[in-house]
Amino acid sequence: MKRRMFVLWRVWASLSGLVAAAVVIVAGIELVAIARAWPDDWHVYASGPIPESHFIQRARAHGNVIWKTRPLDTIAPVIARAVILAEDVRFYKHHGFDLAAIGEAIDRNLREGAFRMGGSTISQQTVKNLFLTTDKTLRRKLTEAALTLGLERHVSKDRILELYLNIAQFGPNLFGVEAASEHYFGHAATIATEIEAAELAATLPAPVPDNPSTRTRAFLRRRDRILWNLAGVYAPPANAVPPQLRPATAPATASVAVSAPVAAGSVTSTVVGQSATAAVTQAA
Question: How many domains are contained in the chain?
């Protein structure tokens, strides 16, 4: 009996040692992957010119790229509002990860029986665009999580939003909200109607198949949902037309120009203080 217990103990100890060694090896591999992706200097991303993202570099290697940048304080605030409402309504509330959105994504995926909604924040998407590939692997997700923490620690929220708006893809080989606005609407991103802002935001989840040029059903559904959100409505009646698309409300869709540079802080207060605050309340 004692001999059997001794043998079992040795087997258990050996297995435990192997598991521990495997964990250490895997952790070491992950740390190496994170170290390779970790920026040498976060200050490059915290201020100054917008850096070219990994996605833009890859696209440039395969053909022509249309990419233009614009400072956040000269981008029409309605564009920032629309993007935050569509992509990350609690952007100014969280520290890189929106646990509520992740829970909502899991719940919806389970109910629909498909994994379609990810719950990634603007910070996570910025990291993915700047540093990573589209590979959907555990290693990439772990690296993304580590880099997101670094981004949130070293870079302000307004700057993260500025980076995202300037490096996000808005169509085939089309990057940045400035290039997108000029391409689709014929003018700079300093002005935008609510409809235009909603269409830009609706492009982000699938910019190649769904954009203001293709006008797919999925794109139009997203645009209409964002228009309702911009109007402060988060549970619109079925098949109802957003107010911005009704002829009687045409004046409300007139171009909104930034007549003078708007401080980044006021962009923040515009985004959070108006529609986004209401959306946070609805989502809570």
Answer: 2
What span, in angstroms and rounded, lies between the C-alpha atoms of 82 and 271?
9
What is the rounded CA–CA span in Å between residue 198 and residue 190? 15
Digit-coded pLDDT (tens) for 106-163: 777 777 676 555 679 999 999 999 998 777 778 888 999 999 999 999 999 999 999 9
Q: 63: left (phi > 0), else alpha (psi -120 to 50), else beta?
A: left
Query: DSSP letter at 176?
Result: S
Q: Containing domain of residue 259, as a range?
A: 47-283
CA distances in angstroms from 220 to 134, 201, 203, 215, 249, listed in the order given: 25, 11, 10, 6, 19
Tally of residues, the chain: 284
Under the phi-then-psi rule, with left for phi > 0, alpha for psi from -120 to 50, and beta for the rest, what region is 38? Answer: beta
Domain contains 42: no
